[in-house]
Write a structure and sequence with these properties.
globular; 7-stranded mixed β-sheet
Length: 384
């Protein structure tokens, strides 16, 4: 288990972490954030920069990479909020470094366009060209779409950790890679996604097992991570890539700040899960709502269990669809990164997702949110 020991902080402890992480050394920083409507990204960047300023950390070089998105339909209020956020972030960051903007598409409009998966892969490749001689890489997922931050996180990890079996793999030559998020599970549930794209998006590096003819006869185990207002996306994935013979293991948040949240999700997904596919209730798994490394451990152990059990049949296909709030999704991505094999002799891992075309959210809800900042250090000197 790569992250058997881990660095995870929340709230005021995040500032203590930054003080320890940046103390008494020069910093060459790449800060990656979303050019989106979610104002939580401002909260994170403001506190990050305040910590650097107040502590007097030495910044040798710094770049803010603002990742914009193509193909989404937003109302005028959310479009304006997106522009306001981008201007404020650029203004905040210009005191320590430069600001670069680029775009990623996760949407295919027609037959002549690139597929959504290809467009995402090209966008991620563009981001990786900015990952150079940095001492610190920060990925702020607060205003990034789910498929984008999963693709970025797993791709950066793949670049920093070319050999997961190495004894000091997580040290990653001393490059500190941290993921920041302003977590508010209630707000995540209030952001409504509509009109899932017919062209499924596959996270780069996690698609081969769904297409290779040599593994088509392997049994398939599907782990959908359930979240509110995502039934249409769930059904799109189920109809597109999940055969009737698949073993379905839905994952619900537990423990959760709302003890009834898991029960409501089971009711919300009742028709596709239990009426259509007759999924046994004994297959329901739990993942910690607000602790990504616990969610990582729980999913990783479940995937390993099925790999071992189905090895007698030649191999198995593991499919994970993240539909839940941000911290569970991060844990999901870490488990998939660790499980991804160098080849497909015994199993393979895929992450398909039906990216919505339209997002709806209340500006009042967004601005009223009081999120808790959390930080995950995934590589670097902490693991030396």
């Amino acid at each position: 288990m790569l992250w058997k020991h881990y660095v995870f902080r929340r709230g005021d402890e995040v500032h203590d972490l930054w003080d320890q992480l940046f103390r008494s050394r020069p910093i060459r920083l790449l800060y990656i954030a979303g050019r989106g409507f979610d104002v939580r990204v401002i909260t994170v960047l403001t506190q990050f920069l305040q910590n650097i300023s107040s502590s007097g950390h030495k910044i040798e070089d710094a770049e803010l990479l603002l990742v914009g998105f193509e193909g989404y339909e937003l109302d005028d209020n959310l479009k304006k909020l997106t522009e306001d956020n981008a201007k404020e972030m650029a203004e905040l960051f210009k005191g320590i470094g430069k600001v670069t903007e680029l775009k990623i598409s996760t949407y295919s409009a027609g037959e002549d366009d690139l597929s959504a998966s290809t467009a995402l892969r090209i966008g991620v490749k563009d981001v990786l060209t900015h990952v150079a001689e940095h001492t610190d890489i920060v990925l702020d997922i607060s205003s990034l779409p789910r498929v984008v931050y999963l693709a970025l996180m797993t791709s950066i990890l793949n670049k920093l950790i070319p050999n997961k079996d190495a004894t000091d793999a997580l040290r990653a030559n001393g490059v500190n890679f941290q993921v920041l998020v302003a977590e508010d599970a209630k707000l995540d549930a209030q952001i409504v996604s509509e009109e899932p794209n017919n062209d499924l998006v596959l996270i780069p590096g996690f698609s081969s097992v769904l297409h290779a003819e040599s593994v088509r006869d392997w049994p398939l185990v599907w782990f959908p991570i359930l979240g509110e207002n995502r039934v249409s996306q769930f059904e799109k994935v189920m109809e597109s890539v999940i055969p009737e013979s698949a073993e379905i293991c839905p994952i619900v948040p537990h423990p959760s700040s709302d003890p009834r949240r898991g029960d409501r999700l089971i009711v919300e997904y009742r028709r596709p899960l239990f009426e259509s596919r007759q999924t046994p209730t004994s297959n329901i798994l739990h993942a910690h709502e607000s602790h990504p490394f616990e969610a990582y451990r729980q999913l990783l152990l479940a995937m390993r269990h099925y790999c071992n059990s189905l090895s007698i049949l030649g191999g198995c296909r593991l499919v994970v669809t993240p539909l839940a709030s941000k911290l569970i999704t991060l844990g999901t991505g870490l488990a998939c990164f660790e499980m991804k094999p160098p080849d497909m002799e015994k199993y393979g891992v895929a992450i398909p997702y039906a990216e919505p075309r339209r997002y709806k959210a209340s500006v009042e809800d967004l601005q009223a949110s009081r999120p808790e900042i959390t930080a995950l250090v995934l590589t670097g000197e902490a693991y030396g």
